[in-house]
């Protein structure tokens, strides 16, 4: 079986790392399966892209495109590659423009698509990600869902064939890559955080990262948290901050906020585990907060991961300063979540995709 994996954004490198690893392990055991990676170039900074290939031993892309973040442009460049290669399956992840471009290009060539992280919905139609998810799920032949809610979402949309609750490949990744306890101290030392509680914050979603008022409110909230707040700044958010002097002043005055460059995944897993709180608008980090048993404040009004809210690990605050601070002041009453699988989602996916391959 010949697979082409199409990825382009940071969280996709992490998800693909565990699936690609499972493919290579099965090939090493004699299974007739091979994968090539196509990188759309959606994320291109070293610490948003190449660093993840290095840290997670993801094989170098066979094709590394440079077509920006426009779905139509990506599709135009991907199509001739798929046409020439004629893979048995195109594998796509999540909800970015690279996901939809890959899925649409394959679909138009009648190449079957497998969607990993299918069925997630925010029910917020203003999010470009929501459009990408829905459109990709309509195209996909195999729909691999991380949660039962995702399965139900697809059923409600009339998508019932080849829908599988396999758990979350990000849980596989967190189990596989979280550095052992003895190495965690080094990461804290690297960021000068070893002796005190700290909070970890990330902001990157377009609705926040491009919204001066929302960023102002969030930074004001972060500045009032009585502990250091580590803020690895996404390039998207950095661009807005650099363009708005008032935001730069606010950050400069907030002496507890430490703005740093985006960190590697291994460092991020340690920071997530050791933080007292995580504040984020990231999808992936809401779950990673639970994987590391750290309470999470989600700086949005809705989430694709409702089970984290229901289990008490995650609170939705939107971007208002007062609601963020209020959510932090309340105790977190938590329980375990039984949705994300047993850490072997990647293997399950490959077995479903290749039932007859030996
Ligand atoms: N991440 C990372 N370094 C950072 C920020 C995030 O390795 O500086 C990881 C994080 O641990 C998670 C993933 O990137 O696995 C989440 O990606 P992002 O927030 O960009 O996208 P989303 O999950 O919202 O689609």
Whole-number mean pLDDT: 96
Cofactors and ligands:
uridine-5'-diphosphate
Would you list the SSEs in sequence order as H and E?
Answer: EHEHEHEHEHEHEHHEHHEHHEHEHEHEHH
Given the structure, what is the number of helices?
A: 17
Briefly note the structural class of the backbone.
Answer: alpha/beta
What name goes with the CATH superfamily of the largest domain? Glycogen Phosphorylase B
Question: Could you walk me through the main structural features you see in this protein, from its secondary elements to its overall organization?
Answer:
With 358 residues, the chain is an alpha/beta fold. The protein has 2 domains: 2-168 and 341-353, Glycogen Phosphorylase B (Rossmann fold), CATH 3.40.50; 181-329, 3-Layer(aba) Sandwich (Rossmann fold). The protein contains 17 helices and 13 strands. It has helices at 10-28, 50-55, 71-85, 97-108, 128-139, 148-156, 169-177, 181-190, 206-209, 212-223, 235-243, 245-253, 265-274, 283-291, 306-310, 321-329, 345-353, and strands at 2-7, 34-39, 63-64, 89-93, 113-116, 142-145, 163-165, 199-202, 229-232, 257-260, 277-280, 296-298, 314-316. The strands form 2 sheets. It has a 7-stranded parallel β-sheet, sandwiched between helices. The chain has a 6-stranded parallel β-sheet with strand order 10-9-8-11-12-13, sandwiched between helices. Strand 4, helix 4 and strand 5 (113-116) form a beta-alpha-beta unit. Helix 3 (71-85) packs across helix 4 and helix 7 (169-177) crosses helix 14. The radius of gyration is 20 Å and the shape is globular. The N and C termini lie close together (10 Å). The model has no long low-confidence stretch (mean pLDDT 96). Uridine-5'-diphosphate binds at residues 10-11, 14, 202, 204, 232, 262-263, 265, 268, 282-285, 288.
């Amino acid at each position: 079986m010949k697979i082409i994996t199409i990825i382009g954004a940071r969280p996709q490198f992490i998800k693909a790392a565990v699936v690609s690893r499972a493919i290579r392990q099965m090939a090493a055991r004699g299974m007739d399966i091979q994968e090539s990676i196509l990188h759309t170039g959606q994320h291109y900074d070293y610490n948003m892209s190449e660093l993840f290939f290095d840290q997670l031993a993801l094989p170098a892309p066979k094709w590394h495109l440079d077509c920006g973040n426009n779905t139509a442009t990506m599709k135009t460049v991907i199509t001739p590659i798929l046409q020439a290669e004629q893979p048995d399956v195109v594998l796509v992840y999540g909800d970015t423009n690279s996901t939809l471009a890959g899925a649409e290009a394959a679909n138009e060539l009648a190449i079957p698509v497998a969607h990993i992280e299918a069925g997630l919905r925010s029910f917020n139609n203003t999010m470009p990600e929501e459009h990408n998810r829905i459109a990709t799920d309509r195209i996909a032949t195999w729909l691999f869902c991380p949660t039962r809610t995702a399965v139900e979402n697809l059923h409600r949309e009339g998508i019932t064939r080849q829908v599988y609750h396999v758990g979350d490949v990000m849980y596989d990744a967190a189990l596989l890559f979280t550095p052992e306890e003895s190495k965690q101290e080094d990461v804290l030392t690297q960021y000068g955080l070893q002796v005190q509680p700290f909070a970890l914050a990330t902001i990157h979603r377009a609705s926040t990262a491009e919204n001066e008022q929302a960023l102002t409110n969030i930074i004001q909230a972060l500045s009032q948290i009585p502990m250091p707040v580590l803020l690895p700044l996404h390039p998207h958010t950095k661009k807005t901050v650099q363009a708005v002097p008032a935001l730069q002043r606010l950050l400069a005055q907030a002496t507890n906020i430490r703005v740093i460059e985006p960190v590697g995944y291994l460092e991020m897993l340690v920071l997530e585990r050791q933080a007292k709180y995580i504040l984020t608008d990231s999808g992936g980090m809401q779950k990673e907060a639970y994987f590391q048993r750290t309470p999470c404040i989600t700086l949005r009004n809705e989430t694709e991961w409702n089970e984290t809210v229901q289990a008490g690990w995650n609170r939705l605050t939107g971007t208002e300063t007062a609601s963020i601070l209020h959510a932090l002041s309340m105790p977190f009453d938590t329980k375990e979540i039984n949705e994300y699988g047993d850490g072997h989602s990647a293997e399950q996916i490959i077995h479903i995709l290749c039932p007859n391959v030996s």
